[in-house]
Amino acid sequence: xxxxxxxxxxxxxxxxxxxxxxxxxxxxxxxxxxxxxxxxxxxxxxxxxxxxxxxxxxxxxxxxxxxxxxxxxxxxxxxxxxxxxxxxxxxxxxxxxxxxxxxxxxxxxxxxxxxxxxxxxxxxxxxxxxxxxxxxxxxxxxxxxxxxxxxxxxxxxxxxxxxxxxxxxxxxxxxxxxxxxxxxxxxxxxxxxxxxxxxxxxxxxxxxxxxxxxxxxxxxxxxxxxxxxxxxxxxxxxxxxxxxxxxxxxxxxx
Length: 254
Known about the structure:
By secondary structure, the protein is of the alpha/beta class. The chain has helices at 13-17, 31-44, 58-73, 100-103, 107-114, 127-149, 161-172, 224-227, and strands at residues 3-8, 51-54, 81-83, 154-159, 189-194, 199-206. It contains eight helices and six strands, in the order E-H-H-E-H-E-H-H-H-E-H-E-E-H.
């Protein structure tokens, strides 16, 4: 199957001020966020991408634009970012637009942290619904891109912290109640490959490093992430490539 790069949008004015932005309109990248996504775009430019999809929220569309610009600067056709509503931010309902320090005092906040599968935001979305529609969108797109461009294709999905954490939890075989153990910083890149038998998380929450190791090469044909074939080690991961670094985040960020 194809390889998916999950890119979180860069820092926004809401992130900087401690506001739960949700689907509020007009939330844009701040100066640091703009710098972050330009850097992420240059990292991704080490490999040609078959498709670029994005959450409809403006901050994600800005981030996708930086990825597209970097592809053009690398001498490739500039990809068109396609909006995928399945990657939209969680609908936080009445919590949207409020200060996180205020929300943290709500009884529901503790449930969000400890048992998110039991949470439905007041006037908003259940977290189980959020995960289901995000994972469904990613798996549907991955299958379509593989069918169109082949198993060596690399594609990018730009989304939000909770959405990416939910997708990673599914790929890792974790219950949603454990997804708060996963960290996804602004402008970080995580890498997932959906094998024939199971998904492989090749990298999580990375901020540095050229991603050209994802470019197709003959050795990839034998990698378990490429076609589900074992590599002779019962406890091995999806890819022994040294570029597949897991972790490297700078700390929690909402």
